Amino acid sequence: MNWGQPNKLHYALRTAGAIGYIALAGLDRVTVTTLGNNRAENFPPHRGKHSSTALFSFLETFLASNSPTHMQSSSQTSLAPAINSYAVRAKNPGPLIIISDLFEPLSKSSNQSNYLAAINLLARKGFEVNLLHILSPDEVKPNLSGDLKLIDIESGMEVEITADYDLLQRYNNGLIDWQAELRSFCRARSMNYIPVETILPLEELLFSWMRQYSVLR
Question: Which of 9, 47, 74, 75 could cross-link with 156 by S-S, CB 3.0 to 4.6 Å?
């Protein structure tokens, strides 16, 4: 997540902070779970606007721990175990927002990402799931050309490509198909799927898009 211009992780944490503040100000109970460097950190249940300082401090600490100088090299963070763990622990289902770029390896046993099964478990337990799919403009429309060596920021794996028109078109088609699959998956389970580019102003996301999907009222 800690990549892209504007940076996806920064955007996700600003979004989480803003939504959390709105919920706290409305006297809703707010919990947050962050996932990075192969570990989950939890912000326990809080209520009331006075708790916003603690929430912002929690998110800032997570951001600092995921800076390039603190991140573990060649480590991949998986959504599925954290979501499954949360689903088992949570006793009061309610509105739930997952903010992620969803870049995760497919399951070895099936051509499906493990996190989809975990998200499905949340829906079966009665959570009102909202999936915010955060991508940077660099990922939606890569500005690449020629012979390149790409390095996965999480795993460190390298791949050599020739970025020509055909490759970029296949990439674009793959992205469209992926988002369509996620949208269909969520729609079938009465979830909201909200694809967001980090160039979208936060105010527009909160007060236009999120209200359009009835995430915020």
Answer: 74
